[in-house]
Structures are given as structure tokens and as C-alpha cells.
Amino acid sequence: MRLVFLGLAGAGKGTQAKTLSEKLGVAFISSGDMFRHHLAQGTELGKLAKGYMDKGEMVPDEVTIRMILDRINQGDCQKGFILDGFPRTLNQAKALERALGDAPVDRVLYIKVGEEELVRRLAGRISCRTCGTPYAQQMLADDAKQCPRCGGELYQRADDQPEVVRRRLQVQWPEVQGLADFYGRQRKLVEIDGERPVEQVEEELVKAIDRVG
Ligand code: AMP
Fold first, then answer.
1. At CA 14, angle to CA 11 and CA 18, rounded to 5?
2. pLDDT at residue 139 in the model
3. Which CATH superfamily is domain 2-204 in?
């Protein structure tokens, strides 16, 4: 099972992709989490990515593609994987297609949420520094400091500040549209209304995947 989650920042891709990967027993790969990990470790890649991430811009395709394709080649991805946040450009989608060859992506799940709702969600989003899980503020106790999932430290991502959020959405919107068209033409795209409650979105996703094969 090879799945791609498509959608703008804050659409709920990360939350849903992570839950689904655990259910299916396949690898969860988030390009944003990988960049943040590099950043925390102070690697060269992390230093390079930081300049773009701080401004809400995309990290250049070349380094992003290399990082993800290296990850997909690892043993735990043999059974399948779920990609969250990659591909984000047409160039990345084509590189992925070439790399996967005759074992291509099965489905692309496009979670759609309107811009105002996205800004509202991201402004109130708290994330885990260790596992990357995002939480809406109201999901956590007022004095919560640790991630309910892994115990890691909770924080607000610098790029979830309103000005950077607007820039991220502006940058991502045309790319997401292009990717929806690309996968739509391949008849792999499933569109899901992401403004409904999390459990309903999850149900829709499971239904979409049941039809694979
Ligand atoms: P995310 O956690 O998916 O919201 O990503 C956070 C930031 O990481 C983005 O705003 C970009 O700067 C960078 N990033 C993540 N995935 C990609 C990608 N596929 N291509 C380029 N930049 C990316």
C-alpha cells in the first residue's frame, strides 16, 4: 500500500496519515518532520532547510527529493508507506513516479479545507517536538507540557504564526491544485471534505483505501 496525502497546511493530513499508517502497519513519512529533525540535529540539510521553513517557502526540490527517495529505499518501506507533505510540487511527483517504477502510488487522498479554517486551526496548533504529532489546543489540558502519544515536549511551531501561515498557504495553493490535476488524470485522486469531524474524515479515508486493489 503506497499512499500520498495531499492538502494545504492544517488540513489534518499529518494527524490522519499517522493514524492510518499505524492501522495499516506501513511506514509514515513526513517531509516536514524530517526537515524539523535535521534542524534539531543541526545537520547541513537542517541549516539549509531552516532558511526556507522560517519564511514559509518550499525547500528546493533537489534536496527534498533526495531526502525522501533515500527514505523510501529503506527496508521498512517495502511493505508500503504513507507520504505526508511530499510530493508538494509537480517536479517532486514526477521524480517519485520515476523512482517507484512498476510499484507506483496506489491512491492520493486530498483533504480539502477552506483557507479561513486553516488559519484558525494553525494559529491554535501545538506540536510534539519528538514525534511531530499536531494537537488542537482544546484537545490538551491547559497545563499540558508533554505529548500524550510519546511524552515528548509540546511547542508551537514558529511557522504556525499567522503571517507565516498566510505565506505557506499562498505558496502551497497553486502547487496543490497542480498535483490534484496530475493525480486526477491518473484516476488516483480521492477528494475528502476535511472540515468534518476527525472521525468522519477517518471513515472516508478507510473507505477510499478499501477500494484499492
Ligand atoms: P509541513 O510540516 O508539511 O507543514 O512542512 C513544513 C515546512 O517544511 C514547509 O513550509 C516547507 O518549508 C518544508 N517542506 C516540507 N515538505 C516539503 C516539500 N515536499 N517540498 C518543499 N518543502 C517542504
1. 140
2. 87
3. P-loop containing nucleotide triphosphate hydrolases (3.40.50.300)
